[in-house]
Amino acid sequence: MPTETTMYRKEQFMQASQFTRLEKDVLEGLLEEESTYTMEQAKEHLNQFMNEEAK
């Protein structure tokens, strides 16, 4: 049975309570305005960014 994955726009992530102010700032720069992302994709973008910054 296929499961539907909820997609969100960049502006919706900016209002999401599960992200800190810093995470929202990072997502603001990483996500594209016209695209939609799953919560998992947004978190993956954050993780990749944080890992790159740590090197």
Tally of strands = 2
Strand content: 5-15%
Instruction: Work out the radius of gyration.
Output: 12 Å
Helix count equals 3
Lateral arrangement of strands in the main beta sheet = 1-2
Task: Give the termini distance in whole angstroms.
Answer: 41 Å
- Shape field: globular
Number of domains: 1
Q: Give the averaged pLDDT, no decimals.
A: 91
Helix-and-strand structural type: mainly alpha
Q: Give the ordered list of helices and strands.
A: EHHEH
Q: How would you classify the quaternary structure?
A: single chain
Q: How much helicity do the residues have? A: 55-70%
Q: Biggest β-sheet, characterized?
A: 2 strands, antiparallel
Q: What does this protein structure show overall?
A:
- The structure is a single chain.
- The protein has about 55 residues and is mainly α.
- The protein has one domain (about 15-55).
- Helices cover about 60% and strands about 5% of the residues.
- The chain contains three helices and two strands; from the N terminus they run E-H-H-E-H.
- The chain has helices at about 10-15, 20-30, 40-55; strands spanning about 10, 35.
- Strands 1-2 form a two-stranded antiparallel ribbon.
- Helix 2 crosses helix 3 (about 40-55).
Write the layout of secondary structure elements.
Elements: E1 8-9, H1 10-15, H2 21-30, E2 36-37, H3 39-54
Antiparallel strand pairs: 1-2
Helix pairs in contact: 2-3
Features:
55 residues; mainly alpha; two-stranded antiparallel sheet; globular
